[in-house]
Amino acid sequence: MYASVLRNDSISNPPSTAHDSPSVFAIQGLECWYGTHQVIRKVSLIIPERRITAIIGPSGCGKSTLIRCLNRINDLIPGFRMSGHILFKGRELDDPAIDPLTIRLKVGMVFQKPNPFPKSIYENVAYGPRIWELHRDRRLDDHVEKSLRKAALWDEVKDKLGQNALTLSGGQQQRLCIARALAVEPEVLLLDEPCSALDPIATGKIEELLLELKQRYTLVIVTHNMQQAARVSDETGFLLMGELIEFGPTEKLFTTPGDSRTEAYITGRFG
Amino acid sequence: MEIAHQHATKRRIGERVISIGLACCGGLSILTTIGIVAVLIVETVAFFRHVPMWRFLTDTQWTPLFANKHFGIAPLVAGTMLTSTIAIAVAMPLGLLTAIYLSEFAKEGVRQAVKPLLEILAGVPTVVYGYFALLFVTPLLQRLIPQLAGFNALSPGIVMGLMIIPMVASLSEDAMYAVPQGLREAAYALGSSKLQVSLRVVVPAAFSGIAASLLLAISRAIGETMIVAIAAGQQPRFTLNPFVPVETMTAYIVQVSLGDTPTGTLEYNTIFAVGMTLFLSTLLLNLFSLWLRERFREQYA
Ligand SMILES: Nc1ncnc2c1ncn2[C@@H]1O[C@H](COP(=O)(O)OP(=O)(O)O)[C@@H](O)[C@H]1O
Ligand SMILES: [Mg+2]
């Protein structure tokens, strides 16, 4: 059934990528509505494993809506509706047999505004492992340390793990949110404009971190900052008014865009 | 030109009159409060001229209306604490569960409908609750607990708890509803269930607001008069036994005020000493509650 979805010729084939990395998400003819307002139109694309895929486009074009489909967190919004297919490692994501909670265990998310819980730094990172009962006691301590190290935050917070997370700077809070997401050992990390509330130095640190995380995780980053997409991503998709105008290797999209609207956007003629 | 000018002048005078009138109303309520506090202080000082403070605080009997006079506030405080504790033990779990349901589980329409309902419930005259406790709840409880006296702390405590549920629920719900949506999304994105989001994220994040609502409820229970005056009895007794008649501070004040105690006597002055104790304890609780709510607001400003 899944294979037939991907072979369905009535929908344009998802743009294939130039490398041989297997796909984590295969999105086919995705459409989304809030009530009667359609915000995603026939979007198809493939998100390759252990790469950074960037989604760019002017604000309001549907970037957040698109990636929020990938962990089914849009399901929580009253009036949200989608059609089309999203295959996660070959399985239909909205298969009623799949518990959305377990999808979110595999697909983590970092939000635009850093949103640490008003708890200690330690408790923020331990939250996921605790609700999933992944580790206990000493092993939980080790796991929290490991997660904070992965998020390049350990050295800055190791002496104040008991301190309230809201006392950290914005950039540190965002890396804490990354550590919190990594603590449940996901395979994919969705990042919705993770740097839009941060200064350039904090942004630089996060970008560096993303390049490192790529070794182990599949990353999807939404950004309206084209330089950022160009700096960190391997693939880029350009979304305009809910339509995926172009999708392909980042370098190609930024140097020889195939669509005049992409060119207009990346050269700053609108957006 | 001239007419327009006169119009404007007239309107300015009108506005002045209204604003002065409003200021007078505001000033009146402030003056009343100052007056009450002043009377309270003067009469309390008069009381302590006859009864030393240490005896007021350490004596375990309260018999100012008898021949053998004792002036220990302890039995009245015990009675008040007993009924209030029972009330909070009822109101806290039920109020918080209602708040969690309304804020996190109910559809927006249900929430919109139930919230005003809660406020109506909070407006039922307390004398109704008092007779409900005396004539309905006590006989009902006596079937379960044979040794329960006709007047006792348990029944008015429970009914008082029911009475303050709407207040706990409504104020706690406000605090939970104000928790930023981003925190809920963060928790959902980690695979939390709805119950986990509510109990592990929303409730702790709204903690200071919830605590403030509970403190206000305690203060309300301590100050509640009618229910305990009707159903708890009027026997100052230094006990924590919920099955026997007790008297609260408020019930004592009613008893003396309605009796034929002549003004200016020591017996008469006792109600001001008790009133002062009541005033100070509820004032402290309200200030603490206000402080907590401010802190809650700052956290999410
Ligand atoms: N919860 C919502 N309810 C209704 N409309 C929404 C909601 N979220 C987003 N939208 C609308 O959907 C469109 C796309 O929004 P979004 O995906 O947030 O865009 P972007 O992230 O690219 O700025 C916008 O027109 C926005 O107003
Ligand atoms: Mg967005």
What is shown here, in short?
Chain A is of the alpha/beta class.
Can you tag this structure with a few keywords?
heterodimer; A: 271 residues; alpha/beta; Rossmann fold; six-stranded mixed sheet; four-stranded antiparallel sheet; 10 strands; 35% helix; 25% strand; disordered N terminus; B: 301 residues; mainly alpha; MetI-like fold; 2 domains; 12 helices; globular; binds adenosine-5'-diphosphate; binds magnesium ion
Rg of chain B, Å, rounded? 24 Å
Q: Report the largest inter-chain contact.
A: A-B, 26 and 19 residues
User: CATH H-level name of chain A... which superfamily?
Assistant: P-loop containing nucleotide triphosphate hydrolases
Q: List bound small molecules.
A: adenosine-5'-diphosphate, magnesium ion
Question: What can you see in these coordinates?
Answer:
The complex is a heterodimer of chains A (271) and B (301). With 271 residues, chain A is of the alpha/beta class. Chain A has a single domain (2-266), classed as Rossmann fold, CATH 3.40.50. Chain A has eleven helices and ten strands. Chain A has helices at 2-7, 63-69, 100-106, 121-131, 137-150, 154-157, 170-182, 200-213, 226-232, 250-255, 260-266; strands at residues 23-34, 37-48, 52-56, 80-88, 91-92, 107-110, 188-192, 218-222, 235-240, 243-249. In chain A, the strands form two sheets. Chain A has a six-stranded mixed β-sheet, sandwiched between helices. The longest helix of chain A has 14 residues, at 137-150. Chain A is globular, with a radius of gyration of 19 Å. Chain B has helices at 2-50, 53-58, 74-105, 108-121, 126-144, 154-177, 181-189, 194-205, 207-223, 226-231, 249-258, 266-299. By secondary structure, chain B is mainly alpha-helical. In chain B, 77% of the residues lie in helices and 0% in strands. Chain B has two domains: 2-49; 74-300, MetI-like fold (Orthogonal Bundle). Chain B has twelve helices and no strands. The complex binds adenosine-5'-diphosphate and magnesium ion. The site of magnesium ion has 4 residues of chain A, from α2.
